[in-house]
Write a structure and sequence with these properties.
Blueprint (H helix, E strand, L loop, with lengths): L2 H18 L2 H5 L12 H17 L3 E3 L2 E3 L14 H13 L13 H11 L3
Antiparallel strand pairs: 1-2
Helix pairs in contact: 3-5
Length: about 120
Protein backbone atom coordinates (compact mmCIF):
# COMPACT_ATOMS: atom_id res chain seq x y z
CA UNK A 1 0.00 0.00 0.00
CA UNK A 2 1.37 3.43 -0.92
CA UNK A 3 2.11 5.86 1.92
CA UNK A 4 -0.55 8.38 0.85
CA UNK A 5 -3.19 5.63 0.93
CA UNK A 6 -2.08 4.58 4.43
CA UNK A 7 -2.51 8.15 5.60
CA UNK A 8 -5.96 8.37 4.04
CA UNK A 9 -6.96 5.04 5.60
CA UNK A 10 -5.73 6.20 9.03
CA UNK A 11 -7.66 9.45 8.72
CA UNK A 12 -10.79 7.54 7.68
CA UNK A 13 -10.51 5.25 10.73
CA UNK A 14 -9.95 8.22 13.05
CA UNK A 15 -12.95 10.05 11.54
CA UNK A 16 -15.15 6.97 11.92
CA UNK A 17 -14.10 6.64 15.55
CA UNK A 18 -14.84 10.33 16.17
CA UNK A 19 -18.31 9.93 14.69
CA UNK A 20 -18.98 6.70 16.59
CA UNK A 21 -18.16 8.09 20.06
CA UNK A 22 -21.15 9.87 21.58
CA UNK A 23 -20.58 13.57 22.31
CA UNK A 24 -21.55 13.11 25.96
CA UNK A 25 -18.56 10.79 26.43
CA UNK A 26 -16.18 13.33 24.91
CA UNK A 27 -17.46 16.20 27.09
CA UNK A 28 -18.17 14.42 30.36
CA UNK A 29 -16.36 15.59 33.46
CA UNK A 30 -13.62 13.59 35.04
CA UNK A 31 -14.65 11.49 38.05
CA UNK A 32 -13.71 12.92 41.45
CA UNK A 33 -10.30 11.93 42.74
CA UNK A 34 -10.29 9.22 45.41
CA UNK A 35 -7.70 7.67 47.65
CA UNK A 36 -4.10 8.82 47.34
CA UNK A 37 -4.86 11.11 44.39
CA UNK A 38 -7.29 13.20 46.46
CA UNK A 39 -5.04 13.76 49.48
CA UNK A 40 -1.83 15.80 49.06
CA UNK A 41 -0.47 14.40 52.32
CA UNK A 42 -0.85 10.83 51.06
CA UNK A 43 0.79 11.81 47.78
CA UNK A 44 3.65 13.30 49.81
CA UNK A 45 3.94 10.04 51.69
CA UNK A 46 4.00 8.17 48.39
CA UNK A 47 6.80 10.45 47.12
CA UNK A 48 8.74 9.83 50.33
CA UNK A 49 8.46 6.06 50.11
CA UNK A 50 9.20 6.09 46.38
CA UNK A 51 12.25 8.36 46.45
CA UNK A 52 13.55 8.82 50.00
CA UNK A 53 12.83 5.65 51.97
CA UNK A 54 15.59 3.61 50.35
CA UNK A 55 18.08 5.57 52.46
CA UNK A 56 16.05 7.31 55.18
CA UNK A 57 14.08 4.31 56.50
CA UNK A 58 15.80 1.59 58.51
CA UNK A 59 17.03 -1.33 56.44
CA UNK A 60 20.41 -2.24 57.95
CA UNK A 61 20.52 -4.34 61.10
CA UNK A 62 22.89 -2.97 63.74
CA UNK A 63 22.74 -4.43 67.24
CA UNK A 64 19.49 -6.26 66.35
CA UNK A 65 17.79 -3.01 65.30
CA UNK A 66 17.03 -1.65 61.85
CA UNK A 67 19.06 1.48 61.12
CA UNK A 68 18.73 3.78 58.11
CA UNK A 69 21.72 4.29 55.81
CA UNK A 70 21.11 8.07 55.95
CA UNK A 71 19.79 10.16 58.85
CA UNK A 72 16.23 9.42 59.91
CA UNK A 73 13.98 12.37 59.08
CA UNK A 74 11.74 12.08 62.13
CA UNK A 75 11.19 15.53 63.60
CA UNK A 76 13.31 17.37 61.03
CA UNK A 77 10.46 19.68 60.03
CA UNK A 78 8.33 19.43 63.18
CA UNK A 79 7.54 23.04 64.10
CA UNK A 80 10.08 24.34 61.60
CA UNK A 81 10.25 28.01 60.68
CA UNK A 82 9.66 29.03 57.05
CA UNK A 83 13.40 29.70 56.71
CA UNK A 84 14.24 26.17 57.87
CA UNK A 85 11.65 24.71 55.48
CA UNK A 86 13.17 26.69 52.62
CA UNK A 87 16.68 25.55 53.54
CA UNK A 88 15.68 21.89 53.70
CA UNK A 89 13.74 22.11 50.44
CA UNK A 90 16.76 23.67 48.70
CA UNK A 91 18.98 20.94 50.16
CA UNK A 92 16.67 18.23 48.79
CA UNK A 93 16.59 19.97 45.41
CA UNK A 94 20.38 20.42 45.14
CA UNK A 95 21.54 17.32 46.96
CA UNK A 96 25.04 16.84 48.37
CA UNK A 97 28.04 14.56 48.00
CA UNK A 98 26.14 11.82 49.84
CA UNK A 99 22.61 12.49 48.57
CA UNK A 100 21.35 12.97 45.01
CA UNK A 101 19.46 16.15 44.19
CA UNK A 102 15.81 15.86 43.25
CA UNK A 103 15.17 19.17 41.46
CA UNK A 104 14.51 17.32 38.18
CA UNK A 105 12.45 14.57 39.79
CA UNK A 106 9.70 16.60 41.45
CA UNK A 107 7.43 19.35 40.23
CA UNK A 108 6.81 22.30 42.53
CA UNK A 109 3.49 20.75 43.63
CA UNK A 110 5.14 17.41 44.33
CA UNK A 111 7.79 19.16 46.44
CA UNK A 112 5.00 20.88 48.39
CA UNK A 113 3.35 17.50 49.00
CA UNK A 114 6.64 15.93 50.10
CA UNK A 115 7.40 18.82 52.46
CA UNK A 116 3.89 18.57 53.93
CA UNK A 117 4.48 14.89 54.64
CA UNK A 118 7.94 15.51 56.16
CA UNK A 119 6.28 17.88 58.65
CA UNK A 120 4.22 14.96 59.97
CA UNK A 121 7.22 12.78 60.79
Amino acid sequence: MKPQYRLMAALAVAGAFWLAVPEQVLTQEQPPEIGVAADPLKRGQAWFYQRCSICHVGRIIVDDQYQPMAPALTGVLKGATPEREKTIREYIERGSLRMPGFRYNFTSQEFDELMAYLKTL
